[in-house]
Amino acid sequence: MRALLEIEFDTPAANQAVNDGSMAEGIKQSLAQLKPEAAYFLARNGQRTMIAVIDVPDEASLPSIAEPFWSQANAKVDLHVCMNADELLEGLGRLSS
């Protein structure tokens, strides 16, 4: 299922990762593992933030998605099931069935 993954990195932990050079490698590893459909990086609420559209195969996949961000980056993690416009239209079409 398609999901929107939002990661807000803890500023002190992210500062340390940037300063010791591990931030870029961590992002590369995360992207290689998650294989996002799209990924964007921005400042939100004063925090370094990553937003990615990913495929979540099943509920049991959630720990392997979230835990590295919590344990290694002290990050806030939000995950929302989402759909594209075609899927929305299909779902709306099912309402009349």
Structure report:
The chain is α+β, with helices and mostly antiparallel strands and 97 residues long. It has four helices and four strands. It has a single domain, classed as 2-Layer Sandwich (Alpha-Beta Plaits), CATH 3.30.70. The model has no long low-confidence stretch (mean pLDDT 95). Helices cover 47% and strands 30% of the residues. The protein has helices at residues 11-20, 22-34, 62-73, 85-95, and strands spanning 2-8, 38-44, 47-55, 76-81. The radius of gyration is 16 Å and the shape is elongated.
Write the layout of secondary structure elements.
Blueprint: E1 2-8, H1 11-20, H2 22-34, E2 38-44, E3 47-55, H3 62-73, E4 76-81, H4 85-95
Antiparallel strand pairs: 1-3, 1-4, 2-3
Biggest β-sheet strands, sense, barrel: 4 strands, antiparallel
- The coarse silhouette is elongated
CATH superfamily: ACT domain
In what order do the strands lie side by side in the largest sheet? 2-3-1-4
Mean pLDDT: 95
Which percent range describes the beta-strand content?
25-35%
CATH class group: Alpha Beta
Give the strand tally. 4
Q: How many structural domains?
A: 1
Q: Write the CATH architecture name.
A: 2-Layer Sandwich
Structural category: alpha+beta
H/E element string? EHHEEHEH
Ends apart, CA distance between termini = 23 Å
Pick out the low-confidence regions. Answer: none
